[in-house]
Amino acid sequence: xxxxxxxxxxxxxxxxxxxxxxxxVEWIRAYAAQCGxxxxxxxxxxGDRSNLFATIGPVDxxxxxxxxxMDVVPANEPAWSxxxxxxxxxxxxxxxxxxxxxxxxxxxxxxxxPALAARTLGRPIHLAFSYDEEAGCRGVPHMIRRMPDLCARxxxxxxxxxxxxxxxxxxxxxxxxxxxxxxxxxxxSRPDQGLNAIxxxxxxxxxxxGNAERLALGPFDAAFEPAYSSLQIGTVKGGQAVxxxxxxxxxxFEARAxxxxxxxxxxxxxxxxxxxxxxxxxxxxxxxxxxxxxxxxASDAPLTHLLAELxxxxxxxxxxxxxxxxxxQAAGIDAIICGPGDIARAHRPDEFILLDELxxxxxxxxxxxxxxxx
Length: 374
What we know:
Layout: H1 3-12, H2 22-34, E1 38-43, E2 50-56, E3 64-69, E4 88-90, E5 93-95, H3 99-118, E6 125-130, H4 140-150, E7 156-159, E8 170-171, E9 173-182, E10 186-187, H5 197-215, E11 230-238, E12 244-245, E13 248-257, H6 263-276, E14 283-292, E15 295-296, H7 302-311, H8 325-330, E16 335-337, E17 352-354, H9 355-372
Parallel strand pairs: 3-6, 3-7, 7-16
Antiparallel strand pairs: 1-2, 2-6, 4-5, 5-17, 8-15, 9-13, 9-14, 10-12, 11-13
């Protein structure tokens, strides 16, 4: 089955983040099994979502991981010019939700499986397909923890996020948190009888703004744009009516950290300030919703040289978006980003990948197989 046909099948599964993904997992399992891959389905703790791990070649020697996520963001934007879950070909473009981010990479890897299986590989190629990456890389940590039972420690992981088929060595880490403050409702004419949750939240919001301004003063890493860690308030919700003392306020915060800085550490001062509000009689719940570390692969690492040779281009130093690569590196597996498509097309109406990009990715994977042939 060719890459375009596979991509058509994958796009047809509305595998939106946070939802059950059994249908797409089963389709990939059946296809990969026909190609001779050894497959393990790894259910997550949610009960309705799974990771998939497949291997071509020997499992007892180090090889390479091709890592991608099966989930996509919702496609509720009204500006779509066609059904987002029906692949549409248009002047060299393949349009559909997830084509760039990142079912195009999955399709290229699956299309390469027959050619890889036809070789006698001295070292394996593994497919590591995860769920809920779009919710902060929630699925892949469960798969990484199982890898010692599935294969010898890999030499490296290629994370196929859209990079215009140019390897990328670094990205920032990220943490997201949700803060819920509960006070006591009442009539606005008697503020002395209530506890205003929005007023309480304001002190945490002010601290977040101040911390964000201080982060812009450094430390710096010139590989990134911007060159410093950042913090923002993403959402704030609270109150029922202007004449009711609000008893609930909820805010969400996000931190993005340069290499060497803990993303959740950037949120720690907000947690401390929030928890101090309990002494005023407020109920406070501060929850880290997701976190992944930064990626920083050395420019002289063997994996860097390998991808430069496979792509024919020198790797880029860094990107602003985050991926699962940092989690692989934190587990002791060198990781690099390289995949078809463009991140600028992701999460937008009429998302697309170029046919040439799809074919270039399949060719790169097959060239990797040539290098690993016995």
